[in-house]
Design a protein that fits this description.
Helix content is about 30%, strand content about 15%. The protein is of the alpha/beta class. The protein binds 3-acetylpyridine adenine dinucleotide. 3-acetylpyridine adenine dinucleotide (N01) binds next to helix 5.
């Protein structure tokens, strides 16, 4: 490429040093592209750098939530638990950064503020928060799907005199809630993971719940046998019940292949029968089996869990009954029971969540009918009274999928701003590229399966596709690639069609921007399944990048 003469020109600039940015850097550098990564945090890890709240761990099994690109890495890394904790995942990401010698091409503590496409030179002009100016032939946004936190605009929040936290921007030092009155707003996945642990520490925990969430037991366990207790940790692995770590490692490719063939890029065996074809006894047997097995495999209880409301209701009812059986106070149990479809908000995976509400030091404050009125200097004012608190935790989620991209002032051809292009919601070709924004790529962007899949598999598929693409352009001396508006519109229409009757689209959630005031209501991830999507991407590339204009610049 033409970069050797100008030290501030790169073939590729990558924004973000999480799982996506690191693998992108590794692949591009190996392919001979001069590459620079900008990362706003002081170290690698992306979402796992920021989300350090008590109980933070991945709800996808660690043997699957790991890179597949290096078989040596797969073999040498030893996960200690079925679901890895945030510190363990961060250790893994750091190990990857060191093992593949990635750090020296990453600039930390640096935000990309603007990225403007210069049509004359076919290059992206980038300005960082430190006032640096860099140019690049290609710009890759590896900014993550859940990386901009959402703090609702509660009246008086600035007057709160206690300690204020957000689960998505947790301090690096350990927080001790012993002896404290703690409030937590929100009951999504982050809250569901942290509430049981905070409740064990705090003097009293108040949970402010607007909408109850469905959650299933994780059944976490060690992956390594304990010689003292003879705990057979490695045996009960989860997704494929009978496999041990050793068996998976003996045929890791096989596990990955099964993941590639599955709807959510996760290797597990779903039940192929429709709920409507099963007898009540068969359904209950299958429910109990998966409830005991634990984790997201619950969604594979029958084939029409996500497509038939009638089938979905069987599963919803089963979980509702479990909540009522677990929570002793019937008023609290009733408030915890969701009435909407199960799985339309991302299913959470917990350890002792419902049991926590049987503790005398935990109070559920139901704010579903009358919202939190304000935050005072002493605590939260809701239900006509003040709840005095020493600490208040916002577990209020993220401006998902578009928030971080829209924070950057991205300007494409003719000064078109991404903020203008997406004013009615995100539009892209494959969640990878944008009409009007040549040589710009988004990893797991809106319009791709991303958050509906095992993110690691989706990230690797996107990175590999992008590297193949830029190599193709380099080999042919092609200066620009950009999707046509027609191809983009067709993809957006297809996305909307597959999402229209889908269970995932049947309630308000961050998938549809429902958690952010004023955000356009669009189902953002592609819900047509990972294998269909991969096939589509492959065919487009095989046809010389069908739907794209490849030009001289
Ligand atoms: O955020 P959420 P999260 N007043 O948006 C409530 C991933 N994740 O951080 O439902 C009162 O799910 C809001 O209420 P409602 C995972 O993909 C993964 O928990 O909008 N409440 C809701 O209860 C997950 O889906 C892991 O009515 C208000 C909560 O805040 C995603 O991150 C672990 C409110 C927000 O829940 C986001 O999860 C954790 C208000 N004004 C997270 N505004 C893994 O294990 C919002 N809420 C990989």
């Amino acid at each position: 490429m033409d970069s050797s003469t100008n030290s501030s020109h790169y073939d590729v600039v990558i924004v973000g040093a999480g799982f996506a940015g690191l693998y992108m850097l590794h692949r591009l550098r190996s392919a001979g592209f001069k590459t620079r990564v900008f990362e706003q945090a002081s170290d690698v890890g992306g979402t796992w750098y920021w989300n350090r709240y008590p109980g933070a761990r991945c709800d996808v099994e660690s043997m699957q939530y790991a890179y597949s690109f290096s078989s040596e890495l797969e073999q040498e890394w030893e996960w200690t638990e079925r679901y890895a904790t945030q510190p363990e995942i961060l250790r893994y990401v750091n190990h990857v950064a060191d093992r593949f010698d990635l750090r020296h091409d990453i600039q930390f503590n640096t935000c990309v503020a603007t990225a403007i496409f210069n049509e004359t030179g076919s290059r992206w002009m980038i300005e960082t928060s430190n006032g640096e100016h860099i140019s690049a032939t290609y710009c890759v946004m590896a900014t993550g799907c859940l990386s901009s936190t959402n703090t609702p605009n509660f009246e008086g929040v600035e007057s709160f005199s206690g300690s204020l936290y957000h689960t998505g921007e947790w301090p690096h030092q350990e927080i001790d809630f012993s002896g404290q009155r703690v409030g937590i707003i929100g009951t999504g996945s982050s809250a569901i993971q942290s509430i049981p642990l905070i409740a064990e520490q705090a003097k009293h925990l108040y949970v402010f719940q607007r909408t109850p969430h469905y959650t299933v037991p994780a059944r976490n366990q060690p992956l390594q046998s304990d010689p003292k207790t003879q705990h057979p940790g490695r045996k009960a692995y989860g997704y494929d019940e009978d496999m041990t770590v050793e068996e998976i490692k003996a045929d890791y490719l096989g596990l990955r292949q099964r993941a590639l063939e599955s709807f959510a890029a996760l290797a597990f065996t779903p039940n192929r029968q429709s709920a409507l074809e099963m007898t009540e006894m068969e359904r209950q047997r299958e429910f109990e089996k998966r409830w005991e097995q634990g984790g997201l495999t619950f969604q594979g209880v029958f084939s029409d869990f996500s497509i038939s409301r009638e089938a979905n209701e069987f599963a919803a009812e089963f979980v509702r009954r479990k909540i009522q059986q677990t929570v002793k106070d019937s008023v609290v149990a009733k408030a915890l029971v969701p009435t909407y479809t199960i799985g339309c908000k991302r299913l959470a995976v917990d350890t002792g969540y419902y049991e926590t509400y049987n503790r005398p030091n935990v109070t559920l404050v139901d704010v579903s009918k009358s919202p939190i009125e304000r935050i005072t200097s002493a605590g939260v004012y809701a239900q006509g009274r003040e709840y005095p608190l020493n600490s208040l935790i916002m577990a209020t989620g993220f401006d998902a999928m578009t928030g971080t991209l829209l924070k950057i002032d991205i300007q494409g051809r003719g000064g078109l701003r991404l903020r203008e292009k997406w004013v009615e919601g995100p539009k892209s070709y494959l969640g990878l590229c944008l009409a009007g924004f040549p040589n710009l790529f988004t990893i797991t962007g809106p319009g791709s399966p991303s958050v509906l899949t095992n993110m690691l598999m989706s990230i690797e598929q996107h990175v590999d596709w992008i590297v193949d693409c830029v190599e193709y352009l380099r080999d042919r001396n092609i200066a620009e690639i950009e999707p046509t508006l027609e191809a983009e519109n067709e993809w957006v229409t297809h996305n909307n069609e597959v999402a229209s009757d889908h269970i995932r689209n049947s309630c308000s959630s961050w998938y549809v921007g429902g958690n952010i005031e004023g955000k356009p209501r669009v189902f953002m991830p592609y819900v047509g399944g990972f294998p269909n999507y991969v096939e589509k991407c492959r065919n487009i590339a095989a046809k010389g990048y069908e739907g794209f204009v490849l030009g001289e610049g």
